[in-house]
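Predict the 3D structure for this chain.
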Amino acid sequence: MNQEILWLGWTGVHMTPWKLIGLLGALMFGARWFVQFFASRRARKPVIPRMFWYMSIVGSLMTLSYFMFSAKQDSVGVVQNLFPAFTALYSLYLDIQHRGWRRDRGAD
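Done. Predicted structure below.
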């Protein structure tokens, strides 16, 4: 997983599968704010949709795995992504407890 993806060599970018996982995780973690923005805009009030928590968990775990298992092995990145993953899991748990597993899409 630390070997360069050769078919991307023409771009001049050194990309490994782990780096791709880390980048996709960072994009997922950042894109959750667009989901929150559009949900709040549609509701005309601050809203955090359940998709926000799913994207937080997936993004955190992807970047966490990058920092743990790639050649990077960076403890700062591990700590930086471990806490958001735990917080997002707990927030998702609370959301499910409060609103139920199959809540209506239009519900707050």
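The radius of gyration is 17 Å.
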